[in-house]
Amino acid sequence: MPNYVPEPFRIKMTEPIRLIPPAEREQAIQAAGYNVFALRAEDIYIDYLTDSGTGAMSQHQWAAMMAGDESYAGARSYYRLKEVMDAVFGFKYFVPTHQGRAAENILANLLVRPGMFVPSNMHFDTTEGNIRARGGRPTNLIRAEAYDPAARLDFKGNMDLAKLRAFIEEKGVENIPFGMITITNNAGGGQPVSMQNLREVAALYREYRIPFFIDACRFAENAYFIKLRETGYAQKAPLEIAQEMFSLADGATMSAKKDGIVNIGGFLAVNDEGLFERIRNELILREGFPTYGGLAGRDLDAMAVGFMEALEERYLEYRLAQTAYLGDSLLAAGIPIIEPPGAHAIYIDAKHLLEHIPQRELPGIALSVEIYKQGGIRAVELGTVAFGYIDPETGEEHLPELDLVRMAIPRRVYTQSHLDYTIATIKEIATRRKSLQGYKIVYQPRLMRHFTAKFQPL
Hints:
Blueprint: H1 22-31, E1 46-47, H2 59-66, H3 76-88, E2 93-97, H4 100-111, E3 117-120, H5 125-133, E4 137-140, H6 161-171, E5 179-182, H7 195-207, E6 212-215, H8 219-229, H9 238-247, E7 251-255, E8 266-270, H10 273-286, H11 297-309, H12 313-332, E9 345-349, H13 350-353, H14 363-375, E10 377-378, E11 380-382, H15 384-387, E12 389-390, E13 397-398, E14 404-408, H16 416-431, E15 439-443, E16 454-457
Parallel strand pairs: 1-10, 3-4, 5-6, 6-7
Antiparallel strand pairs: 2-8, 7-8, 9-14, 11-14, 12-13, 15-16
Helix pairs in contact: 1-14, 2-11, 3-11, 4-5, 4-10, 8-9, 12-16, 14-16
């Protein structure tokens, strides 16, 4: 069994959780239309649905919240956050938003028009949704090895530069309002992007004068992977590495609910003054005044502290090691996952674990439902339902290369015993995996269907 790294903190406050009986779990998942998003939180024992907004804040964050300035405009909390934004991210302008999808919404609404294309290594669901909602075409140009779950590379989240250049030449600069890259690459297993790749992607976007935006949700984890794996960075602090990463970009979107370790918050940052003025006006319409952006002052203060705590090496060492413990334990039991383990989540390869279930019969849904029924554990499908789509021009159904079930580990929340229980649950399911059956969709919205779709077992 892999070694478990002790938590670099001790627990001051607890929240009771309860494992309800199997019959009640069966009733709960049926009532939810077999969609784990529709489950009541009180019916879940261990919740890996997301690491977004689900972490445990520190004593320093809670203390900072008590000093929150709730002035409508010009609050001290905003200026405390601005100091940290300047120190870590370094962009000339920023606006706070209530979470990352709000930043994506504003950016897409201002820049994306029908028929335009937005390249990235891999877009995540809310980014895709906001681009598609404006008639745009999000396009993934990640390296080919990312689609091989068992391939072990240090930087499996890297963009394929040859694909990116060919894509720009084919589609035309005038049809690409901006380019992106996601760090770490959530949709592809939480895999990091190297500094060298960031540098080369930035240079390519600059060559074609395409604005370059980083999806920065897990910037601290990506920075620590660079420190551990990339030549020339072993002696650098994660803060220095983060500063270098963002110096390469023209802007960033971020959900601070990840590497800000807060329950709510985010930002949209840019260097272009004219674009910032448009963003600011859009923010006032959609989120709030530019110095609070849909958040309370106390949220801004908690975010300012969280950004710095997320860059602490003791925390990052534990964060990566906890995820590796879960991933390596599953691999030792013969459970296929995206390798190597990332930082924030383990992605079970449902397509191969349940190879008897055709992809159109939703193996990821079958596995996530069974994980809940077996152990009261909530994990989420990131595959055919989350990333499949109908081509608006041809009407053809596109199935994603990967069909995964993600277990995202909330920050500073669960202990080794919770992970050991999870491992035992997955191992038990694997022994009878051939008995699992597929599912069909009985309701789905047009965009981001995985949040509210309903299913039935076949």
